[in-house]
């Protein structure tokens, strides 16, 4: 649960289906901590059973504008061009690392359902948001764990995987998600407001417009 629009909507959709949540966020030495503050607000709003912020230093790996402050976050990309190439905001193997930690925590708790807000339609070109990747990770999880070997395996839930950003927003509004609690910007201003220039801001703003609504952060 990053504290962003997608993860908050994923949480709401899971709760509608009767799931209760142990929420996992990551302090991975990203450019800013604003998204972690948002994740705490979202966790409180949805009354999760436990919210764990896991510390892991992906700055040591580098190779991404989100973990290396010497690499600029791309700005003002044409909406139609977002996702054509894997952008510099891709963090190497991030979802694999995050899902592996979630898998370990789930197995230790005796739980078998893992939710992630991956989206393969209106997304930024990240290879670890595709359905085939999610299926491959689920297959691996059921091969590599005691629970999986004993027949009590895992399911990776991706309720947003085939939705557009506007469809995600409409679904969230139907479920009462307060998007004013969330944060999506890669490179926020000093006052914490979204930059409105990075790919994430552009996708989010376009989604609200298409959904016939206004982003409460703007």
What proportion strand? 5-15%
Strand order of the largest sheet: 1-2
Helix % is 25-40%
Distance between the termini: 22 Å
The name of the CATH superfamily reads HUPs
Mean pLDDT: 94
Q: Which class of secondary structure composition applies to the elements?
A: mainly alpha
Could you name the CATH topology? Rossmann fold
* Form type: globular
Number of helices: 7
> What are the segments in which pLDDT stays under 50 over at least 5 consecutive residues?
none
What is the level 1 CATH name?
Alpha Beta
Name given to the CATH architecture: 3-Layer(aba) Sandwich
Q: Report the C-alpha radius of gyration, rounded.
A: 17 Å
Q: How many distinct beta strands?
A: 4
How would you characterize the largest beta sheet?
2 strands, parallel
Number of domains: 1
Describe the structure.
- It is a single chain.
- By secondary structure, this protein is mostly helical.
- It has one domain (5-210): Rossmann fold (3-Layer(aba) Sandwich), CATH 3.40.50.
- Helices cover 37% and strands 8% of the residues.
- The protein is built from seven helices and four strands.
- The chain has helices at 5-16, 34-45, 94-109, 131-144, 146-149, 165-174, 199-210; strands at 22-27, 50-55, 113-115, 155-157.
- The strands form two sheets. Strands 1-2 form a two-stranded parallel sheet.
- Helix 1 (5-16) crosses helix 6 (165-174) and helix 6 crosses helix 7.
- The longest helix has 16 residues, at 94-109.
């Amino acid at each position: 649960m990053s504290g962003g629009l997608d993860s908050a909507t994923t949480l709401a959709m899971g709760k509608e289906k009767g799931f209760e949540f142990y929420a996992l966020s990551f302090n991975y030495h990203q450019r800013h901590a604003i998204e972690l503050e948002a994740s705490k607000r979202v966790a409180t709003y949805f009354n999760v059973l436990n919210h764990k912020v896991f510390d892991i230093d992906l700055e040591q790996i580098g190779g991404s504008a989100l973990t290396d402050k010497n690499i600029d976050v791309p700005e003002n990309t044409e909406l139609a061009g977002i996702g054509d190439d894997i952008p510099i905001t891709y963090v190497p193997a991030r979802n694999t690392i995050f899902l592996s930690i979630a898998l370990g925590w789930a197995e230790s708790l005796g739980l078998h359902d893992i939710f992630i807000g991956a989206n393969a339609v209106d997304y930024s070109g990240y290879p670890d948001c595709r359905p085939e990747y999610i299926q491959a990770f689920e297959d691996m999880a059921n091969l590599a764990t005691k629970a999986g070997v004993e027949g009590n395996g895992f399911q990776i839930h991706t309720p947003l995987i085939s939705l557009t950003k506007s469809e995600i927003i409409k679904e969230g509004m139907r479920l009462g998600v307060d998007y004013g609690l969330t944060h999506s910007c890669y490179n926020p201003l000093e006052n914490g407001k979204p930059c409105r220039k990075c790919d994430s801001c552009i996708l989010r703003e376009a989604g609200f417009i298409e959904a016939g609504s206004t982003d409460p952060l703007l």
